[in-house]
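Run log, item B.
One chain of 70 residues. Sequence copied directly from the ordering sheet:
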Amino acid sequence: ERPLTVSDLARAEEVLLSNSILRVVGLARLAGLREDLPGGRGPLARALFARVLALESPTRGRGTIRPDLR
């Protein structure tokens, strides 16, 4: 692990953001640096988002992820 640099972003094939609300988001551009990123259409973004959905699917539709609160 190391700090991310502007040079890293300039060379990246995909740039992803993640959080608990949006899960995985592929960026399409980085203002002033890149305008050619694949966004959510990138292979890594699609694969990671699909994996997150698969991991969450057992808890969807139950209203809670904690069975003791049902």
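Observations after the first pass:
- The beta strands are 16-19, 23-26.
- The chain has two helices and two strands.
Flagged for discussion on Thursday.
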